[in-house]
Amino acid sequence: MTANNGSADSKPDTAPNDNPTSSAEASQAEAAEHLDPIIRLEAELAAALAQVAEHKDQVLRAHAEMENVRRRAQEEVSKARKFGIESFAESMVPVKDSLEAALAQSEQTQEDLRSGIEMTLKQLISGFERNYLKEIAPEPGTKFDPHHHQAIATVPAEQEANTVVMTLQKGYLIADRVLRPALVTVAA
Question: Hey, is 82 helix, strand or coil?
């Protein structure tokens, strides 16, 4: 067998650390491998901190918006309390005017007084209707409703049990909410 000087199978007989340039390159490669995860982790940390700052800003903005909504809602409730009866008050002013006018008349006939009271009652009823105030005045024989009626007494009657015998005092609803139940007697 002959030695082949230019063949690819021949290898130099030098040790790997004998070459000073390849030793430095290996150290740099090793340092780069060691620094690469640190650089990568620092970049990830910076991205995470930026995301935390963004989320913190979003939370602060959401909190501020919630406070603004709460404050606006409180203002609306306050205004509703102050001015909620405005419509009803506007309906009652003419009734007061009519009653004062009736009292200012010193010489009236019984018929004139009655006529004035009836007109004032019509104004009052109109004001009630505009403001959704409805009477609860059950007729005799109406089934007793504990949500709208208050039984004062049970009395023996020839009608069916648990029905209204007599209405002692009318009740009132405001938009389907009981303001005052009707006072009634109920058949035993």
Answer: helix
Distance of CA 32 to the CA centre of its chain: 59
Torsion of CA 58, 64, 66, 70, to 10 degrees: 180
Give the residue from 125, 117, 184 showing the smallest Cα distance to 157.
184
Condensed to tens digits (0 to 9), the pLDDT of residues 49-101 reads 999 999 999 999 999 999 999 999 999 998 888 888 888 899 999 999 999 99
Name the one residue in this structure whose structure tokens are 């006018």: 101
- Using DSSP, state whether 146 is helix, strand or coil: coil
Query: With a threshold of 0.90, does the pTM exceed it?
Result: no
The token duo for 84 is 């909620």
Cα–Cα distance, 131 to 91 (Å, whole number)? 8
**Nearest in space to 147 (alpha carbons), one of 184, 178, 183:** 178
Contacts of 166 (CB under 8 A, 6+ apart): 140, 184, 185
Q: How far apart are CA 32 and CA 26, in angstroms?
A: 10
- Alpha carbon distance 69, 65 (integer Å): 6
- Helix (H) and strand (E) counts for the chain? 3, 6
